[in-house]
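Quick entry, no commentary yet.
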Amino acid sequence: MASETVAQEGAARKVSLREELTARRKAMTPDIIDERGLKVQARFLATPYYQKARTVALYAPIRGEVPTRDILIAALQDEKIVCYPLSHVHGRILSFRAIKSEAELEPGRLGVREPTNSAELIPVDQIDLFVVPGLGFTRDGKRLGRGGGYYDATLKAASARSRRVGLAFGDQVVDTMPTTNDDVDMDLVVTESETLRGLYRDWDFLDT
């Protein structure tokens, strides 16, 4: 029973933390998001994880998430394979399609931009680097999502050589966070002012 109580307390803390972090995000104006977002993306593009990756999974931002357009443009220029998740999920694991230009993203059924059906499907185990959104992160790489668990399930299904980097604004970094065995940690968390070491595993993306 004790473990059940601990789990219930952790779940309740996650709910309250989500509410607090959602309120912080809503307080950010579009101008602040754009200004800070440029800095987050520039800092991300300087990481060895980005520079070494061949196949990069991005996300299309919603409701105050860190923008990713600069990363998309840079990655296409660098001739990387760039893919985005689809809103139609079979089970818990996200499906990804690659795009060759920003024009291949269009609003999906949830209003989030996603690749057109003509774009090439990319198996999850072929993705080197996952760029991951979140409501909150800790300095050691723990992540709080919106509660669906899709990214956690997807990252667990990915190749062991894959790596994950969380993008966040400084306001989203918290000292502690309740976690469960289902939660997946980040290798790095990049904000507008610093790059936080999470798991910080090697970035050669070698097959293991």
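second:
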Amino acid sequence: MLNGKFGRMGIGVASIGAALLAGGCAPEASAEDGRTAASTPANAMVDATLAATIAETPTIKVYKSPTCGCCALWVDHMREAGFELEVLDVTDTELVRVKVDAGVPLQMQTCHTAFVGGYVFEGHIPADVIARFLAEKPSASGLAVPGMPIGSPGMEFGDRVDPYDVLQFDAAGNTSIYESR
């Protein structure tokens, strides 16, 4: 199920995406590199209405590299918020294919991709944002946090938090800002 212009890119996207993935993901975090798990538990950020959405959400399927530490930290963040996840460790080539097949615009592709409720979630999106999006059920393909902004879930580095946007996208590749953090 290749989408629009991304389907025509074929192997070129896979090659570019694999290179981006290989350079973008950090290995497991350690105390020496200054990265830490979130200081505020994810579930503390989720209000009662969103908690109900989380409780009703089917298992989220996450595709990631087996060696990516920031992806593992994002998975922890999502589980702390109450989401159930099925985590699939795949090769970089398989991960790029997942993104292309899901229609994730090339400029939004990052280190992990998740699926639930007919939506795709790309990158380090906060759990409460995903819960709100699932509760609202917008006419969109999904959400993405392009790049790997410091301070987003799984990308914590001490007290540093860089501003970033959570982008909504559709099947045609149109994007808009869903929320800024």
